[in-house]
Structures are given as structure tokens and as C-alpha cells.
Amino acid sequence: LRTQTVLMTSSSSGDLYPFFGNKSTGGRAFSITTSDLWHRRLGHPGKSSLASTISNFLPDCNNSAPSFCEACHLGRQPRLAFASSNNVTTAPFQLVHCDLWTSPVTSFSGFAYYLVVLDHYTHYSWTFPLRAKSDTSPTLLRFFQYILTQFHVLIKCMQYDNGGSSSIQPFVPFSLIMG
Ligand SMILES: [Zn+2]
């Protein structure tokens, strides 16, 4: 812009402007750009596509590894970010998270559901393969019993996603549930 020098010209027969770049022409036009800038200009291509484009068409481009691209990361996220949590635990089994995942494919052994239990304090998790959704409650009861037997503590609170909004429920001892 400063020198008003024409660096390159290209004729177009349609909506696109073809660029037949080679080592001698156009090099100056791209020598001051970085691979990050080309990543954005070319519509955020993947690493290998960008590297191939740079090596074939942009000979003098600063071919450094592209840095972190926030737009790419956000664009690949199918969900919004989780709401920040202010749950604080000071010991294991004060808060336990549960989630039941339905597999689109039944396993060779006939498991179609996977119950994941995660302790908030330790982040230790247990995964139970289930054949039926109705196996969830008995499996959880066995898990509570296991925690009581092995660690001599009762789970205080459970957080689960009831097919929608998540909620924290005080844990009802299994003797009450079973009774
Ligand atoms: Zn990107």
C-alpha cells in the first residue's frame, strides 16, 4: 500500500480469482504473511492442508507451525461450555456424579448401557456395563454398599442428569431405599 507497487495480477472468468503461483512470481506478495494469517484467510484449513498449500503455492511464506486457533477449537465443539461449578468437597464420597450412557451399538456381550460413577473429590471413576436400563438402580445400590464396605463411608450427595437438567440430591441410604 505504501509504495503503490502492483505485486501480482490475475484475471478471472468467474467468481474466483485463480492464482498460479510459483517460486518467482507472487513471492513478494506473500513474504510478509505468516501461516497463521493464511490459516484464517483460507477458511481455517487443517494443519496438513495448510502445510501443503504453503509449500506448493506460497514459497516465501513464513512457514512456522500455526499457533492455537480459538475459532477452530470453538467451531469443533458440538456443545456449549459447561456452566462453572462451585461445588466444593473436602473428602471422598461427599459428592458423587452419575451418568448413564446409551451406546448406539450393543456390545458383543449384550451391553447397551454404561453407567459411569465419578467421585468429585478424587476424580476416581467406575464404569459399569449394563444390559438393560432397569439394571441402573440395583447396580448403584451395589456400588453404595461396596463403598460402605470398603471405605466405611456413606455417600452424602449424588449428582445426576435426569435426561436433562442436572441436579444434586442428598443421598438416601440404601437401607431406606431397599426397605
Ligand atoms: Zn482456525
From TrEMBL:
This is Integrase catalytic domain-containing protein. Residues 88-179 form the Integrase catalytic domain. One of its GO terms (biological process) is DNA integration. Pfam families: gag_pre-integrs (PF13976). InterPro entries: GAG-pre-integrase_dom, Integrase_cat-core, Retrotran_Ty1/copia-like, RNaseH-like_sf, RNaseH_sf. It comes from the Eukaryota. One of its GO terms (molecular function) is nucleic acid binding.
